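Case study 2.
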Amino acid sequence: MSTKDRILEEALTLFAENGYDGTGVEQIAEKVGIKAPSLYKHFKGKEDIMTALIDSAEEHYEEFFGSEQHIGEIPESREDFVRATMGRIAFTMHDPMIRKIRKFLVQEQFRNERIAEITTRHQLVGIQKMYEKIIEGMMKNGLFIHDDPALLSIELVSPVVLWVSKADRQPQYEQEIMESIEKHIRHFCDVYMKE
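Prediction:
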């Protein structure tokens, strides 16, 4: 791993634990095993590190979770839909980078306008729009009843976002939460899917 990548990894851990204001460049450099002036060979400062972290996390999230622009294959059955949705949830709950960035974003969303926008996009609006397109595609393929895909996606996504937040706060309930999420998704399919 390059020094630049190690700086980002250690900075993310410190930002998630201590917040942006509670983390100094010296702490990041110490965790990496370099002197603070050496850090400036890779980044202009702490804000530059934060920007690089957010950009990197967004690329990672887009690649493995998806987005409104990158929805992946439209599921062809109820089980495909449940499996794909549960896979995305497992990714978001278990990927170390995404867990740390989510914790960081939640803490900092009230201090930074860009972070507030990113938090809203990743915790609701972006996921809702992605599932709106998925549900709309499944409606066109005759799998979902015809209804408002935007409202259906909100109905699907909102409880899941709350459960993921609970799992972040109380990881000891993760198994129970995952079971509740799958039960919710299956109930959603029972209500709105044709098959």
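The chain is about 75% helix and 0% strand.
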